[in-house]
Amino acid sequence: MTHVRILVIEHENGTGPERFGTWLAEAGAEVVTVRPYLGEEIPAEGLTRAGADGFSALIVLGGSAGPLQDAENPWFPEVRDLLRASAAGAFPSFNICLGGELLAAATEARISRRRHPQIGIYDLHTTSAAGSDPVFAAIVGEAIPAVLFHQEQMTLPGGGELLLTGSDAPVQGFRVGEFAWGTQFHPETDAAQIERWLDSDSLALPEGKTEASIVGELLRADADLIRINRALAHSFVDFLSARYRDLSRAS
């Protein structure tokens, strides 16, 4: 298998790649996580440098901040610049929740704050465009129980392809350009992590839900979450491997 290295940007403690990272590694990728909130520099040059020490793709994870809160997160402008470059075709990226919002903001989509957050399991579905998408095609035809934990909400960037939708926040998975993907949902998380977020986050709960009921939703859906999101992680690595082989043959 072609060696795939993925650079992951983690924005705050407790929001790491979790089992999505495990599934990426299982599919053959090397996952390298950088934590700018701890003062670590983002090795951006590695995303455009060929060779074994470069990166095949970027993953930008979630977090409690909004995508334009630069004062509290001074690395956000650099991340948006990277995602703008990804959307223009410089390198692939896969961007989760806050990461998806950063991609949307970088490509001039509107970001707004919901009156009520979405937290827990929500039923989503793929669009017709997902059938021809090199990553989301892996989950076409599935009923998608997905983990949401957000209050910021994005519109679809101009020229973007909507791949996954549902709920009253319809932009749940999308692609900008050839290979910059964004999600509002969390493919990486599980009940234990959500329980920690509920303990530490100040978001009000959706009407009719309690912390215990939300954790219960995730536990009941866990087998489907594993199957669907593992397929998504493997599909992303398969895409990166095929792209590397194509680039190697062309050079």
Mean pLDDT: 94
Q: How large is the radius of gyration?
A: 17 Å
Task: Identify the quaternary structure here.
Answer: single chain
| Helix and strand composition category | alpha/beta
Low-confidence stretches: none
* Arrangement of strands in the largest sheet: 2-1-3-4-9-8-7-5-6
What is the fold named in CATH at topology level? Rossmann fold
Helix and strand run: EHEEHEHEEEEEHH
- N→C terminal distance: 19 Å
Number of helices: 5
* Broad CATH class: Alpha Beta
CATH superfamily, called what?
Class I glutamine amidotransferase (GATase) domain
Q: Name the CATH architecture.
A: 3-Layer(aba) Sandwich
Q: What level of helicity do the residues show?
A: 25-40%
Number of strands: 9
Shape: globular
Major pleated sheet: 9 strands, mixed
Determine the strand fraction and express it as a percent band: 15-25%
Q: Domains counted in the coordinates: how many?
A: 1
Characterise the protein shown here.
It contains 5 helices and 9 strands, in the order βαββαβαβββββαα. By secondary structure, the chain is α/β, with parallel strands linked by helices. It has one domain (4-250): Rossmann fold. Strand 7 and strand 8 (173-176) form a beta hairpin. Helix 1 (18-26) packs parallel to helix 5 and helix 4 (191-200) crosses helix 5 (211-250). The protein is globular and about 55 Å long.
In summary, what is this structure?
This protein has helices at residues 18-26, 76-87, 98-106, 191-200, 211-250, and strands spanning 4-9, 29-34, 57-60, 93-96, 111-126, 143-154, 161-165, 173-176, 180-183.
